[in-house]
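Lesson 9: reading folded outputs for more than one chain in a single document. The general rule is that every protein is listed as its sequence immediately followed by its structure tokens, and records are never interleaved. Here is the first one.
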Amino acid sequence: MRFTELFTKTRKEAPTDETSKNAQLLIRAGYIHKEMAGVYSYLPLGLRVINNIKRIVGQEMGAIGSTEILMSTLQNKDIWEKTQRWDDKAVDIWFKSNLKAGNEVGFGWSHEEPIVAMLASHISSYKDLPRIVHQFQNKLRNEVRAKSGIIRCREFIMKDMYSFAVDEKTHLDMYEKATEAYLNVYKKMGLGPITHVTSASGGVFTEKFSHEFQTLCDAGEDTIYVHKNGTLVLNEEIFNDSTLAKLGVKKENFDARKAAEVGNIFTFGTKKCEQLGLLFSDAAGTQKPVYLGSYGIGISRLMGVLVEVFADDKGIVWPESVAPFRAHLVALEGGEAEADQLYNKLQASSFKFQDVLYDDRSDKSAGEKFADADLIGIPLRLVVSRKSLEKGGIEVKKRTENESKIIPLTEALDLL
């Protein structure tokens, strides 16, 4: 893509109404646009990052047998009343409205109830199980105070997945596979070493304990306690004398760390399926309720965490796996014709033109182009200029490194 085809512009200064690093940098670099507190639109560069995160997550969910669907955002009041989660006293983050016919509806903050009600039309026998499905969808939550940029929003993009099993044993096997799939997601994005599976309370989702995936991050809203053995991690809300006694561990063996939640998984058991009539016949013909699990990853939240974790004093630093483009090609004075030729070759090659952002602007100085390249954070910068050509070709520099090198123009395609 040519830079001149982008309608977005970079900004030198951070918006005064944003205090989080992720929102400041994403707005300055032209990835997102703030509509109101806790609500952001995703611009061309931002959408490419979101789609790359979705691709990684979708691949890992598919690898454990999940099928992708897309459900309605509008929520049926009757379904949620059956589980006592329609009342604002039970769930205080609803957005609700009324249809012209007078019926009250909700806007999806989660989809456990609707997915269970829907699967009741498709599951009737033990032969129909196990099943696992997922979707990518905008969720709406009436948060009292949206903060931390895109890490906590009133509207956000989420991957939610649901598993359906005949019994607890089968469910736990699926739960373990989902855990490994989540860890693979974070590993592919470079977050593996700093992301912990953390025991936590289920909150409004379930009365039982759940597991969160917490990434160490100074901007995180959570405090987690990491045991010195590195294998036991507890959320602050369950870090108390009673829990520690049950686990047989001592408080002084834990270190408190700031972290951002990038995923969570829940065991619902059979209660919700009983409430909503999702039953199956076993081999003997006996009717039994399905065993339910729920698994969430905040896609847009994860984008914000990546910025918080990897950004430096010059701007965003994207891991290659999620970057909007793999390479940022910059044309400077004396190298315009050669840069155009290289860009055209990239378009015709197997590398494909959509994997390179070409800064072909003629009204910007070298310094401005370099500053924008650092701010936007694409992993590899290629510069074609009179100076680089005199030195033998094209200047190549990784975003994470300070030094550059010159390679012949003929080797550029091999590099990419």
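And here is the second record, again sequence then tokens.
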Amino acid sequence: MNAFPTPHPEETHRSHRAPWLRAAVLGMNDGTVSTASLMLGVLAASGGNTGAVLTAGLAGLVAGALSMAAGEYVSVSSQRDSELSDIEIEKKSLSENPEKELEELAWIYQKRGLSPELASEVAHALHEHNAIDAHLRSELGISHDDIADPIEAAVASAVAFAIGALIPILAAVFSTEETGTWIIPIVSLITLFVSGAIGAVIGGGNKIKAALRVFVGGGLAMAITFIIGHLIGASV
């Protein structure tokens, strides 16, 4: 239980959700758009070959999920290494130059608008409570509790991508050679619109604007890929 409850509990902020929300929404939307676009391109090029379309969709799901996981793992690992390095630098500096670090912390709070006397008082209080955490938060904007987890990020991205990619694949399973051309994009676009709106609700943004962004972007990607597939199919 929080020993210091907020005096304004009804005020809910959502910015702390940004990292995982970005990864989840990006992964799911990317899975839907890239897989649907790939399937539509193959569908147009192959003249509606259901087997080829499903094969392309499954290949896109596996390759995309693995690619997302690998990319997120490498990216977040680099971020984690950088954060851990900064923490060690700050610990060493606190050990070797505690007075200088205290002056630096007071200076930071002066720059934020506190008087020199109050800034010095705040810096001393924070030093006594948890010096390393005070410097990490004030100087670097990070905390021991918020260090990035590359495995968690990789798994979340892969799962989100796979969920998004399953949508057009399932749409293809329940469609025929004649109906796949419109069922796959319609189901995918509805999914993108809904996921964009849900992301906005969780993040506190405008639902319609967020939904339209992914709807229009995804629609353009699918249309362009279908046209390219049709042109390739016609020329082969």
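What the second record shows: The CA atoms of residues 196 and 221 lie 16 Å apart.
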